[in-house]
Write a structure and sequence with these properties.
Number of strands: 0
Largest sheet: none
Strand content: under 5%
Shape: elongated
Distance between the termini: 88 Å
Radius of gyration: 33 Å
């Protein structure tokens, strides 16, 4: 420990008494929060899948265009053979 650092004291622990009803209310609240988080995760998963599908289609279209350009720029074999003669 350096001279500049001050020791951190642990806070005093208090005994808290919780009734059964309060515990049930806390559990219900936790259940609602967990359900909300699950809904958000499912929505984000759907969004990610939609974006991924669109990206895949775009990459496929780009590859198809590149293949068409390469095919267009390649002279046919018959023309090349007749020019060599």
């Amino acid at each position: 420990m350096s001279k500049d650092e001050t020791p951190v004291e642990a806070p005093a622990q208090e005994n808290i008494t919780v009734t059964a009803e309060q515990l049930l209310d806390l559990l219900k609240g936790a259940e609602i929060v967990a359900a909300d988080r699950l809904v958000i995760l499912r929505v984000m998963e759907g969004f990610f899948n939609s974006i991924d599908q669109a990206r895949t289609r775009l990459l496929s279209d780009i590859q198809e265009i590149n293949n068409s350009i390469a095919h267009r720029d390649t002279p046919p074999n018959d023309t090349v053979a007749s020019e060599e003669e």
